[in-house]
Amino acid sequence: VQLQASGGGLVQAGGSLRLSCAASGRTFSSYSMGWFRQAPGKEREFVAAIRWGGGGSTYYADSVKGRFTISRDNAKKAGYLQMNSLKPEDTAVYYCAAQSTLDIRLARGYRYWGQGTLVTVSS
């Protein structure tokens, strides 16, 4: 599976962006998918995740809960992260990942990673 994240850019505080994660490979629909971010000088952190089936349970970091929404379209082999009410502290490179074999919130449990897309939120 290959992943490609896109949709990043520069936005003012309070604005919105929608990140996309395009996947190749036939088994994407059976994988959990997550979004992580890494700000300069900081470790990569969990943002949101969605399970592959069973209604697609979703999980969010406390810092983005109520502002971000993760979704997926298995038919299109794509995942999305809708980000609203953006804050300067949301500035980071955002990565999508697929196939978690551990806790869905743990970066080290994901097998496949996209290249990242930069989100910059100005104050």
Structure description:
The chain is an all-beta fold. The protein is built from no helices and 11 strands. Strands 2, 4, 5, 6, 9, 10 and 11 form a 7-stranded mixed β-sheet that branches. The protein is globular, with a radius of gyration of 13 Å. The chain starts with a strand and ends with a strand.
List the helices and strands and how they pair.
Layout lengths: L2 E4 L2 E4 L4 E7 L9 E6 L6 E6 L7 E3 L7 E6 L4 E6 L8 E9 L9 E4 L3 E6 L1
Parallel strand pairs: 2-11
Antiparallel strand pairs: 1-3, 3-8, 4-5, 4-9, 5-6, 7-8, 9-10, 9-11
The 3D shape can be described as globular
- Helicity, in percent? under 10%
The secondary structure category is: mainly beta
Number of DSSP helical runs: 0
Brief description of this entry?
By secondary structure, the protein is mostly beta strands. It has strands at 3-6, 9-12, 17-23, 33-38, 45-50, 58-60, 68-73, 78-83, 92-100, 110-113, 117-122.
